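Have a think about this chain, tokens included, and walk me through the fold.
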Amino acid sequence: MPKLILIRGLPGSGKSTLAKHLADTCGYFHVEADMWFTKDGKYQFIPGEIGLAHDWCQKQAALKLEMGLNVVVSNTFTALWEIEPYRDMALQLKIPFWIIECTANYGSVHNLPDEAMARMKQRWQELK
């Protein structure tokens, strides 16, 4: 039975590093919205494509879960509603589902402006 793990946290908190570790050591398929913005090894964020990136991420996760693979998704998930499609996916497939929060501060690899980080911190919702 496949498993689904979501890793949430602010930029630079270690989400991608942990997800890559799970992929490398435990065989999880790793996907995150930032992958949408990486072309030829270069990251270029395009604000107008954020919805497309998250749709793509959800579709990739669903496809791999339906194939029977374990999946780890690392995104900020600052608002709890952003988790819902994945929770619904797990419920529909009747598979285990976990959420891990990363809280470290290693610095954003995408050179996120301080104002953008502040907005994300304001938007942050605690798990209930």
In short: The two ends are 27 Å apart (CA to CA). The mean pLDDT is 94. The longest strand covers residues 4-8.
